[in-house]
Amino acid sequence: MIAEVRSLQDIPRIGDKMSKRFVEHFGSEDQALDAILAGDIASISEVEGIGQRYAISLIQDVASRVEGVNVTDFLRTRESMDVYEKLLDIIKEFAHTRYSRDKLHVFFPYPGSKAEKIMQIRRSVSYYMETATVLEGDGAIAELLPKVSQLNFKHQYPKVRDRVIITSDQDSYEYARKRFAGLIDVHFTRSLSEFIDVSRGFSQVIAVGDDYLAFDFPEDVEPEFITDLQDLEDFKVVPEKEIFAFSRNLKSLESSIKAVRLLRSKGIRFFDRMDDDTLELLASTLSLIDEDGDIVHGTDEELDRITSAIERLPSCVSESVTFVNDELNSCLEKSQMTLSGQDMLKVMNGSIELKDMLGKTLHKSYHSIIKQGIEKICNDLQLEKKERLMVDSLFPEDIMHPVEADVDSLGALKQYLIKSSQKRKFNHKREVSRILSSYRELSRELAREVLDFDVGFAIGSFACTYGLVMPAISTSTGIGFKNGRNLFLLSRHGDVIPIDYSVGENSFSPEDEMSKVVLLSGVNSGGKTSLLELLAQSIILAHMGFPVPAEAMEISLTESMYYFAKSKGTLDAGAFETTLTEFSVVADESSKFVLADELESITEPGASAKIMAGILEVLSENDDTMSIFVSHLSEQIMENTTCDIRVDGIEASGLDSDLNLIVDRSPRYNYVAKSTPELIVERLSKKTKGKEQAFYDKLRSKF
Ligand SMILES: Nc1ncnc2c1ncn2[C@@H]1O[C@H](COP(=O)(O)OP(=O)(O)OP(=O)(O)O)[C@@H](O)[C@H]1O
């Protein structure tokens, strides 16, 4: 049944309580739904009370509601599910992120009736196969992808302590308190003096309303007047919030940007929604902030000038004072003063101070030295006009010796510089924040796209590494391939002997050997199980829209696949019954693949052969079903049926010098191959000595 999923309530497994947790985790219902529909298992597993397993099954559930099909529609037995899961495990090794490892679970085999879906996935996977080929051997992308994760903008920014909103309007006050709760102080003032008092406690004052607009404020109070707070964007009031949110995601975003640049540089079209200019503006804006949410030093010349002036002010002033005093001393040492008789009389009768007379004489030199001292400070600190004027009052007008810098003037200059830097920083942050706030959604999408790229890229790299190809989908019932390689063996051993094989109608079938019901006989350890597994892998991958492990393959799509693996233990009567029950459903009209491995072990050989003959007869009645049964009892089975069943064989011709079986792993068509257990006995005999060898020789003599 196909159902639309428009809200969390549409998902039966999400009740009220769970729905609240989803909204809390993702920030809104839309975002939660978005994550579910996008198959973001990694993020969903982080919702309180949801683990990875639950997230996977939830996503598969939703997908099955949306697409009207679920994973067990095609994979009908536990063993077929095992093969699918083992395949996913191999593909997952190529994923660079947890997101993509988890998301690979959204891919599963579809029944042939969903051919359109399979074709759609094939197109996308083919693109990723090409991409993986282009990027093969490129270590850079593999380094970038693990650094990307979903963006999280939910971080709480700590309160900004040096900024305040002041208003004398009750409504604005209430509104501001609500909107900026916990972010900055909001004050309600009843008078201008109260306004000024509060303002003095903060370096940035945002005044809402125009009550005090017309007043002249003292120099140290410089409010920014805002008429309507509702129109004011967040970034203008607390730019730190946006910057902080981005700073928390900096690594992810920077790596995403580099990944996009890299892909585009290789001619790979990626994330068209964001053109190069938009991407570069984001990159350059991000380069202005650090991981703590601060503006990076060296990104704003004016701010750097002021900051450096603040830092160097005390040492620079003290150097200048030393300079002035040294100059003054040397000037005094070189000076002479001649007193006239008149002057002496004035000094004696107290109408003039000797010091004043000295001052008059030294006036010019003193001021020239002070001027040099001031120049030195201004130049060293690269001060600007208004700041220079403040330096003027650092040294006393009247002659003083030794000269000292005026503490109050020095404090005022420092305060002025600090305020300028805060103002500059605030404006700079506003600009950075303004740009970043316009990138919120796009950035989120960017990271998601890169993560989704990793999903596709994992599939592409898997295909590229194992040399997989897209199978041709054929309309006649059959599966056939050239140089097929069992992926489980390949991933374990690195190399396998390629196999050619075909069942049903396709261009790989030998003429007149197009039987759809086949018994696979042959030598122990010849590779029958491995071939059956290879068929299962190929059938599953082809129905997922994925490439298959062969040089070339043709396959027809079916509605389901049954894989009955070889039983591992001794089977009791219950298990025999269960197996028969499982088989009873195989006998319907739908198209399917049925793979069975040594079913004979379910009961004693004579009865097994009869049962298997019966099952194969039923299966052969369905033209759309392909059945491949591995058995050591092919001759007995054939004796029990008149049905046209083909027997293929994998045969060993002997033992090589290392006592390994010499086997042609590709089955011979229409050929009953002997199990040749005698070869195994021979091998054991040759590998042992003494009594043990004698035992094996005795067994050999029985053949
Ligand atoms: N195509 C191949 N290339 C290389 N090695 C293979 C191949 N097929 C099988 N083998 C090796 O042979 C071993 C035995 O294979 P497999 O279990 O498939 O044989 P079998 O015919 O099912 O044996 P039995 O009849 O004893 O169950 C495998 O574990 C693998 O190591």
Notes on the protein architecture:
It comes from Methanolobus profundi. Residues 515-693 form the DNA mismatch repair proteins mutS family domain. This is DNA-binding protein MutS2. Has ATPase and non-specific DNA-binding activities. One of its GO terms (molecular function) is hydrolase activity. The chain has 703 residues and is of the alpha/beta class. It has four domains: 1-68, DNA polymerase, domain 1; 163-232; 238-455, no CATH class; 472-672, P-loop containing nucleotide triphosphate hydrolases (Rossmann fold, 3-Layer(aba) Sandwich). The radius of gyration is 42 Å and the shape is elongated. Strands 10-11-12-8-13 form a five-stranded parallel beta sheet. The protein has a four-stranded parallel beta sheet with strand order 2-1-3-4, sandwiched between helices. A four-stranded mixed beta sheet has the order 5-9-6-7, covered by helices on one side. The protein contains 28 helices and 15 strands. Helix 13 (239-248) packs across helix 20 (407-437) and helix 27 (677-687) packs antiparallel against helix 28. The longest helix has 34 residues, at 301-334. The mean pLDDT is 89. It starts with 15 loop residues before the first helix and ends with a helix. Bound molecules: adenosine-5'-triphosphate. Adenosine-5'-triphosphate is lined by residues 489, 496-497, 499, 522, 524-530, 665. Residues 489, 496-497, 499, 522, 524-530, 665 line the site of adenosine-5'-triphosphate.
